[in-house]
């Protein structure tokens, strides 16, 4: 009786499983002979490969569906999935984010918000310029780095200041030129004019100033990076703020002057204020201790990029910009139809900044979690350490962006190179690829991959 009852229950359960299983999963319920038949019809055509233990990955197309230049009405629809939006809709934002509104079917779960447009950061307007920032308040995922975008009119000064002990200061000049000054802990000084596309770096605790030259009549604009996601530019230690909160008799005693000599010092911080544009060839006062042994600026704009099949890349880290021991950068260009290859950074978080063009990035976080984001000029991206990703050009112009790392050296691992240098049989057993496909894997890093060449 019990055997009969068990047989009936098993039959019912098996029947309901077959009736409700998706069509793509039916191969998992077949006998071993049927599974072998499924393998024989796979792309490899090699019956010696093992039977699949899971269903094959979907061939559904997952291209981006629109961009800002198309006339497509952005809706939460991809193929037969989703439905139109009936309520209020912010169409300009949806046009910028097709892979958020209608995600690829390969997306699963969320990795946290990995996009922040600087346009959404509050501006602090000053006499002579402005500043805005991004830290973990705007982008909680970005725990390792924070960014500041600053603009100074010609002659305007970001006043003499320094940052808290652990915070180095790194910068990329977006436009114009900026004169930097500094004195290190040993009394060695440094003055330089840093031009568009060039870098500067101040080690932790080193005082410095920033001033726009008039090489560009509009002044200068630059991007600042700090290796701490909690950095807040409002917490900077400023010369005028310190002296405004120090008794004048103490100041006079310190400098061996009369109190009257200090009558006109500001009663509060200046932060950014107008000034006279400095000459590009300005020399610092002669120090008895000389100048800093390693320059605090680097002519990154003069570095010749390495060319790849789909674009270019150039790198500045401590191997070439020796003083920059906490920040490394790669400036990457991706031509239309090309992509920054599938890769990851083994020990580094990546803070990205988009300079030109449009892109999409899928971030793979493991455990079946992946999410795709779209980027425009002025947007910030963030990829946590070891998360797999790519950067694809979604426009018809050259894409240019910065990859910035809280590290002394730039490092990445290429998926294609890894598989090319792994025993082919092992790769085949994982992915069921043909020998011919594996033989074409690139065993050198093609960091920017061009469109597939079509045979004529």
TrEMBL record:
Mn(2+) 2 binds at residues 343, 345, 350, 389. It comes from the Eukaryota. Residues 1-19 form the signal peptide. Transmembrane segments: none annotated. Mn(2+) 1 binds at residues 161, 163, 208. GO terms for biological process: oxalate metabolic process. GO terms for molecular function: metal ion binding. The active site is at 403 (proton donor). Keywords: Manganese, Metal-binding, Signal. SUPFAM superfamilies: RmlC-like cupins (SSF51182). The keyword Secreted does not apply. Residues 118-263, 298-439 form the Cupin type-1 domain. Binds 2 manganese ions per subunit. Gene3D superfamilies: Jelly Rolls. Its cofactor is Mn(2+). InterPro entries: Bicupin_oxalate_deCO2ase/Oxase (IPR017774), Cupin_1 (IPR006045), GPI/OXD (IPR051610), RmlC-like_jellyroll (IPR014710), RmlC_Cupin_sf (IPR011051). The keyword Transcription regulation does not apply. PANTHER family: OXALATE-BINDING PROTEIN, SLL1358 PROTEIN. This is Cupin type-1 domain-containing protein. It comes from Ganoderma sinense ZZ0214-1.
